[in-house]
Each structure stands twice: as C-alpha cells, then as structure tokens.
Design goal:
single chain; mainly alpha; two-stranded antiparallel ribbon; 2 strands; 60% helix; cell membrane; ion transport
Length: 111
C-alpha cells in the first residue's frame, strides 16, 4: 500500500520539464477517458446494453428475451429499403454485425 501511495506522489508531483498543458494532457485527459469508458462499460453489463426492434405484440418478458438474444447472437444490418433478411445463408452471414459485444471491454482494457 505504501508503494502505491509513493507511486501516486511521484506521478502527481510537478516535474520541471513540463508545463500546465503537459500535466493536463497526461493526468486529466486520462482520468476523463477512464471515467467515460467505465460508464459505458458498466451500462453494457448492468443496464440495457442494446435495444433491438420488436413487434408491438411483444410485451414484458418477450421484449426482454429478444433484447438479450440480440446481444448474444449478433444482429444484421438490413437497409431500410429491403425490410427483410436475405434468404440465402451466405448473404445473411455477410450482413451480420459481430463487433459491438466486445467493443466496451476492449476500450476499457486499453485505458
């Protein structure tokens, strides 16, 4: 614990080769990015991470089930003009979005 406190003191003490802008850059900016990323990351795991479109007939549990399924199983990008998923498996696989489940975890890891 003393090592941690000592490291914080060394890190936060002013050095003579830097000015106010340098300190703001490596202290405040890092802190702001960490807080913003933590807020987004916590919303993914503790809030409502994804709201999928559901028909009006879906109520309560059905709506919640659909949102959980969308988060786990990926979604598709379908242009507004089409309004339906392609019937062929290859075309459907090409339209699948697979990136959003891990985006928050990756950005939190690199902070």
């Amino acid at each position: 614990m003393d090592d941690l406190i000592q490291a914080i003191k060394i890190y936060s003490s002013p050095r003579f080769e830097e000015d106010f802008v340098d300190r703001l850059n490596f202290q405040a900016t890092t802190f702001i990015f960490f807080i913003a990323t933590s807020a987004i990351f916590s919303q993914t795991f503790f809030g409502k991470p994804l709201q999928c479109w559901t028909p009006n007939q879906f109520r309560g549990g059905w709506d919640e089930y659909t949102n959980n399924y969308c988060l786990i199983e990926n979604t598709y990008f379908v242009p507004y003009e089409n309004r339906s998923l392609p019937q062929e498996n290859k075309a459907r696989d090409d339209a699948e979005l697979q990136y959003y489940q891990v985006t928050d975890g990756i950005s939190e890891h690199f902070q």
